[in-house]
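2024-03-11 09:14:02 DEBUG pipeline.ingest accepted 1 chain
2024-03-11 09:14:02 DEBUG pipeline.ingest length=444
2024-03-11 09:14:03 DEBUG pipeline.predict start
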Amino acid sequence: MKKLFKVIFFLCAICSLSFFESQAATFDISSYPGIHWNALGLAVNPENGNVFLTSLSYGGGDNLREFTSDGTLLFSTRTFADPRRGGLQNLVVGKDGHLFVNAYESDEGSLVLEMSQDGSTIFSSFSAEQYTIGGGGITYNPTNETLFLSSFRENKVYETSLNGIEINSFDVYPFGGGLIDIAFDPFSEHIFSIHELIYPIGPSSPSRHEIIMLEYGKAFNDNYSLMNAYDLNSAGITKHVLALDMDRSNGIFYVQENNQRIVEFHVDDLDSYPVIPNEGTAGTEFIITSDDFGKGGKVYIGNQKCRVLKWKDSAIRNRVMNRKILPGIYDVTIKPKGDDPIVIEEAFTIRGPKIQSVDPEIATARGKVTIKGWFFGTKKGKAYLFDEQGKKKKCKIRSWKMDIQTGKSEAVVNLPRGLYPGDYDLVVSNKVGSDTLIEGFTIE
């Protein structure tokens, strides 16, 4: 008889409320002046469990506060910036107990400040303009004494020295929204990131709101790669999450939820997504996690066999084969050697290509154009232009690439000769499907 695993993403409201009420360290912050609408950062002091909160406070109010772990306010102060010019954002407790804070100043842009816990002294600062594009998170690795900075818009994490020199970087899976904040676990040396999905994505999609925490580690190589994905709705967190940190003394996570409350949880309290990422296309690599997969076997998406890249007892790394498969939601089936099949229902979504941008948008015949988007596939596909009469013109592909985990894609093409001035539809296609950018391109 087949083993059947069903991924459950949501708890009922009553269960969520019961869970929330059981959280001893959850406390309300909505009643404090200036917090209810513009609080941003959260940091936990591993020495005593106290919680620091920052806020923008453009009106000139306090922008740095310290609470005990049960919510007692210890102090509230104003530091750093003229209220008309900038404010404090995400932060972490780092080397020597100093606060390392993402900040914004209208003349200098994004900065990282090293300051005392009471905000009275700023020891150093460096520009973070190249790291925190669109805002971002910050965390600290106490072993290497380095910082990790995240970019909201780029879905990327940078490791830097304490004075801002880049050491390394890696892409974070764009789970439907920007990267809100990050935390470092010194026990596993893994990095965790917070994302939100607010549906509907399309006009026919059901309405729902998911808050997801991703876990990155180095299980398969020396670079950080996606290891696990967790559903924060299962911890009773149902509203907008603005900040994340971990108490490095005990592994407890804290989130700042919607400028209303601080919620704590342990990763073992959360429901997990067994297939990560749970969407992709031909060439996408994904991981399946569980407790006991045995020593080998086969993996399928629907009826299509996947290429197994690495099989461990607790994780299998796979690749979607470059074969024709229709977009849609599929079961994932694991067939361990000498054991019953394991079916994970509706666990993986096959996506067709999606065009995000064209650069330049206005060009000449035979010019070079860069097309960016998602899920183009790892195998070279095709690109076409269609004129107003529907006549197809094939573009020559110069390069074609896709990130095997995130699906982030880029194709560089040469435009065909003999194009008349006007607007053209642009089409990108692969073995899964196609996407059309209507009048997305103009020939001079």
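2024-03-11 09:14:41 DEBUG pipeline.report DSSP finds one helix and 40 strands in the chain.
2024-03-11 09:14:41 DEBUG pipeline.predict end
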